[in-house]
Amino acid sequence: MNSAPSILRRPLYEKSNIELVNSLRSNFLASKQAFAPATNGHTVSYARHEHNVTNIPYSEWIAREHDSIFIPSLDFVNTGLTEERSQYDITVKLFFLPNSYASVRRKHAQEALDLVLRELHIPSVDLLIVSFPGVSFDAEEECEDAVTGDVGAGEAEDMDTMTTAWRALEYLHEEGIALQIGVAEFGSDRLEKFLPRTKVRPSVDQINLKDCCAVPEPLIEYAKKENIKLLTHNDCANILPRGTLRELLGTGEKGAGVLLMPDEQGDGLKGDIKPQWVIKYTAVVRDRGVIENKGYFAMAEIGG
After folding, report:
1. Are the C-beta atoms of residues 62 and 258 closer than 8 Å to each other?
2. Are 303 and 274 in contact (CB under 8 A)?
3. Which of 1, 6, 103, 167 has the most Cβ atoms closer than 10 angstroms to its Cβ?
4. Is-contact 201 186, C-beta < 8 A?
5. CA 294, 275, 36 angle in degrees (round to 5)?
């Protein structure tokens, strides 16, 4: 079967969590459509024959590999870039999610980036940025008259935990898989505490300016002194909440029909779902500044 499209183009102003949810939902439906009954040699349209798609067993369009389940099944044969690798700037952002297991982040980082490399048929990425759970830009400290709010991602991790996870990115850099590595949402105070703990310093700090109209001067000065490039973004702090993922995989009206509720009977997976990471990739054609490829992979654990 032809795999569902893993790249969806959305307006650039669309927030990452909306883009991610829409991408996942579209991929689930496209994969289910591929197994829908045919009429006159054509696949049945989801819009006109929704019942034919929703009744397809989830086992038909997912894949199992050892103790992992891929939803939908993956096929990297027809993926990749249209031009030579040297024609692109490829940026990847790895979101470690709230309540993810810090002890296995090196393994998770390698697995996540490997999926991107296989999807794009490339040996390396230009920039890999890590986003730690609960860490939001310190706007109140960096920016006068800033308004802070609940980021919805829980408490920020301690510096030791973040440093341990950073070792995974340093390894990928040393192996030549990530040519540059960076952090997200670090203010000058957090950077000052973090940098002495690193072997490979971040070359980029990506921040969300939702609480400031411009990059605060103290951060500009500190980043310049430490030779760190500042970038901005509009990603959500918690890009894939547990409830959102359960709804996406569940048996509700807009669900994929894969995950059953605790008291629900039927054909499906059961258990408490815990999102671990999301990885976002963007391939920009250098001489035109055009986004050619953009997509996501996500990983969660299901326990009893």
Report:
1. yes
2. yes
3. 6
4. no
5. 65
Q: Which neighbouring-strand residues pair with 207? A: 232
Q: Is the dihedral of CA 256, 262, 267, 269 positive or negative?
A: positive
Q: Which two tokens stand for residue 147?
A: 């308004």
Q: Which amino acid is at 103?
A: S
Upstream peptide bond of 72 is cis (omega within 30 degrees of 0):
yes
Structure tokens given for 72: 């939908």
Angstrom CA distances, 275 to 11, 63, 174, 198, 242, stand at 26, 19, 28, 27, 6
Q: Using alpha carbons, select from 298, 265, 287 the residue that is nearest to residue 94.
A: 298
| pTM for the predicted model, two decimal places | 0.85
Q: What is the mean pLDDT of residues 212-227?
A: 88
For residue range 24-82, what is the model confidence (pLDDT) as tens digits?
999 998 888 887 655 444 443 333 344 455 568 888 899 998 889 999 998 898 889 99
| 3-state SS assignment for residue 157 | coil
Average pLDDT for 275-300: 95
Q: SS3 for 282?
A: strand
Q: Give CA torsion, residues 236, 238, 242, 247, to 10 deg.
A: 0
Amino acid in position 161: T
Cα–Cα distance, 233 to 129 (Å, whole number): 12
* pLDDT for 139: 57
Q: Contact 296/74 with Cβ under 8 angstroms?
A: no
Strands (E), the chain: 38-39, 42-43, 63-65, 68-70, 88-96, 125-131, 178-184, 204-207, 229-232, 272-285, 290-303
Nearest Cα neighbor of 27 from 72, 59, 57 is: 72
Local structure of 235: helix, strand or coil: coil
Higher pLDDT pick, 240 / 303: 240
Residue that has been written with the tokens 């310093």 in this structure: 201
